[in-house]
Amino acid sequence: METRVLAYSDEAIAEAARLILAGEPVAVPTETVYGLAADATNPDAVARIYQAKGRPGFNPLIVHVPDLKSAERIGTFDDQASELGERYWPGPLTLVVPLRPEAGIASIVAAGLPTIGLRAPSHPAMQALLRAVRRPLAAPSANASGSISPTRAEHVLKTLGGRIPLIIDGGATERGLESTIVAADNGALRLLRPGPIEVAAQRASGARIESPGQLPSHYAPSKPVRLGASDAEAGEFLIGFGAVAGDVSLSPSGDLVEAAARLFDLLHAADASAKPRIAVAPVPDQGLGIAINDRLRRAAA
């Protein structure tokens, strides 16, 4: 299969919509990372996402919608969930809520769970695509399952080239980390995956997979990763932060927002370097650093 890369434009969105309505998955930028979008009501289309990514069937997908009203037609929102949607959407927050049986979402999307992860993205390309197809879009990250998440079109092409028909190139993503995931399905809020938005929720525990990003090994380069490094050992490509300069730096000034936006980009650079191993400087485990360290621990697992 030839994978075309088209710069984000009205024409590119029209072509992406045509492919999606024909049952094909298309890579499109969001404000977090690039997503691999397909019609969430079409089981064959969603199966092509799993096939392209090599994704385990027990790992559910996030469904993208244009707004809260659209989300409420798919999931059951209690007062807490509605308040979070009104406050943070469109934006990098995914809410896991009970799935409405009549919503028409393909069962493969939820991976057999009674809940569904819903998000209203803010990126204009994904919003334009949602308006063009007028259907909810299942859209995990546009990369081979378990590998480094893509923040540029060339990252998508690296692992999915020849597996999907189209990538819309919207440049580097703004946030650089996947959405925060919060379960709001049983009264108390539970944090399933930390991300760009901080929500007052209890960290979920247990081995049950309820959302993407919960596998112990995830977001992983092809090389071994050592965390908490203040210096590079022999054969290591060092990703610095703050006072630790490294071969490259997440943020020389110690800015966690900058570090989050650059994390996957620099992991890709480290993976492509001639050095056989990767080391990463310590990142404070507070605020956005909690989400950064979550991705780093899974990358190193």
What's the CATH topology label of the largest domain? DHBP synthase
Number of strands: 15
Note the quaternary state here: single chain
Low-pLDDT segments: none
Helix content: 25-40%
Kindly provide the radius of gyration, computed on alpha-carbon positions and rounded to a whole number of angstroms. 18 Å
Span from first to last CA?
A: 33 Å
Write down the overall geometry: globular
The main β sheet shows up as: 9 strands, mixed
Walkthrough of the structure:
This protein is of the alpha/beta class and 301 residues long. It has 2 domains: 4-203, Alpha-Beta Complex (DHBP synthase); 225-300, no CATH class. Helix content is 30%, strand content 19%. It has helices at residues 10-21, 43-53, 68-72, 79-88, 107-110, 124-133, 153-160, 256-272, 288-300; strands at 4-7, 26-29, 34-39, 62-64, 93-98, 115-119, 137-138, 166-169, 180-183, 190-193, 202-203, 225-226, 236-240, 248-249, 277-280. Strands 2-3-7-4-6-5-9-10-11 form a 9-stranded mixed beta sheet, with helices on both faces. Strands 12-15-13-14 form a 4-stranded parallel beta sheet, with helices on one face. It has a two-stranded parallel sheet with strand order 1-8. It is globular and about 55 Å long. The relative contact order is 0.16.
